[in-house]
Amino acid sequence: QLQLVESGGGLVQPGGSLRLSCAASGRTVAHYAIAWYRQAPGKGREGVACISSDGSNTHYADSVKGRFSISRDNSKNTFYLQMNSLKPEDAAIYYCAAEEPAYFAGSYCFGSYRYWGQGTQVAVSS
Questions:
Q1: What is the rounded radius of gyration, in angstroms, for the C-alpha atoms of the chain?
Q2: pLDDT digits over 69-124, tens only?
Q3: Is 7 exposed, middle or buried (0-12, 13-18, 19+ CB in 10 A)?
C-alpha cells in the first residue's frame, strides 16, 4: 500500500546544506503524521523532525533546532527535510516515516511509525 522512498542524500562538507525528499505512493499522506529519523553508527534511531497529523505541532530534536526544517508538498505527496549548517555529527542514514492519524494523538509525532522509507545516506566530511 503506502510506499515511501527517500532521495537526496550524499556527501557534503561541514557547514553545507542538503535537502532530503520523501516521495509517498499508494496513499496520500496529506493528513498523516510525518517524520524524519536518523541512525548513526553505534547509536539508536533518533527522531529528527516531525509534523503531527493535524498540523498543529512541529517538533525537532534539540541537536538540529535552528538548522533543519521539515516541510511537505501535498500536491506532490512528498515531504522534505532541509538540512543547513551540517555538522559531522549529522552523518547518518536518514529515514522518512509516515503514520495514519488514527494511530497517533493529534499533536504527537515521534512514535512507533509503521511506514518507513529505505533510508538515504548522509555523509558530512571535509
A1: 14
A2: 999 999 999 999 999 999 999 999 999 999 998 888 767 799 889 999 999 999 99
A3: middle
